[in-house]
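Readers of this paper often ask what the protein records in our data store actually look like. This encoding replaces a full spatial description with a residue-level series of whole-number codes. For reference, a complete record is included directly beneath this paragraph.
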Amino acid sequence: MYIRGLLPLISAVATRAYYRFSVGGARVPAEGPVLLVANHTNALLDAGFVVEAARRDVRFLAKAPLLRHPYIGWLIRAAGSIPVYRVQDDPALVGQNRDIFVAVHAALAEGDAVGIFPEGTSHSGSRLVPLKTGAARIALGASLHLGRSFPIIPVGLVFRDRNSLRSEARVVVGDAFDWDDLAARANEKFTVRELTRRIDNAMRLVTLNLDSWEDAAIVHVAEQVWSAEHGSPRDSESTVSRLTLTANVLQTFRLRGDAEWQSTSRELRAHARMLRRMGLSPQSLKEDVSLTAALRWSLARLPLLAAIPLAAVALLAYWPPLFAARWLGTHNSEGPDSESTFRVLGSGILGAAWTVLVGIVAAVAGGWRVGLATLLVLPIVGITAALVAEQRRLRWMAVRRFFVRHLHRRRLGRMRERQRAIAAHLHELLEIGTQ
């Protein structure tokens, strides 16, 4: 419990350091009882995303073995997580769940926010797995204490590539749905199944559900092409909504046995390959940057050049813990859905330990003042280096795109025409698929 107050800060640092993170959709009530239900494909980091989306203190239910995990158990316990005992973990302890439910009901009755992952476990699947009934039973039990229903809010977590550093992570907060009729009949057996069904429906509105991960690339490219050509907003809620629509239409065409989508998929894949070779995106292909605008943009960023040598030295100094954290993430025994969690935690813990070690060495070599200065300055320099490296990557990509646009005008002109044709065809397919 001793770091619960720091959870929002820890969540913000962990999620925003590893991902390009954005939140969209509804607002979670700032006070009063709330049950937050989220999909679970990214292990411990998923809780950080939910806290960021909620913007308030959240208590989580976690499977009991996690609290005993040799690497992350201390963090889960310190965050005040409530253990859930599953049959597959230890049948002898399942009876203790009665006390857990009492505690969760009391927390909600007192106005707390509780987070739960109704799928029951973190997984690597491309869609929601069948939900457990725990979330529904918690909500119905708490409604008896409160004498009424309260907000159950779905939170969708959508990752472009969850294990890639600085990839996109979008979080969508859905609208609370009505379940007053079920709260009034909380003691009836069918209510658990019905409320679980409603939770499932609400979560599917804010999550991306694919037949397989092979569909992910084509669905994302289709959404990017369509939104680039139609000038659609790029906020998380709108983007996830378009991704979900595209995935649903793809599934509809498959169920119909219609081959129309196959030809469009081939066009999209070929277009995406060409964009990658040119270092472009559907949006940047559509844009046309003038020489004057490019010069102004470049001059404004000249000060960045002065920081590059310092950033290079700092990144070199932190290479050992970063390499170790990457190795830890890749070789952890929890599976691919835990890779980013172990990388983030490993970077933080090993980075801090490395800073202390370098500070001690500096103190031995140059005295306590040098050691203290190293402890204070090195983390600041390291964080600055990471920011500079990120900005440098983005600036280099933008400069490259500028030259590509001006050296391959004819080729890009043909690609623009092709993209417009693909977007028009996609529009037709989306209209047909939703009829």
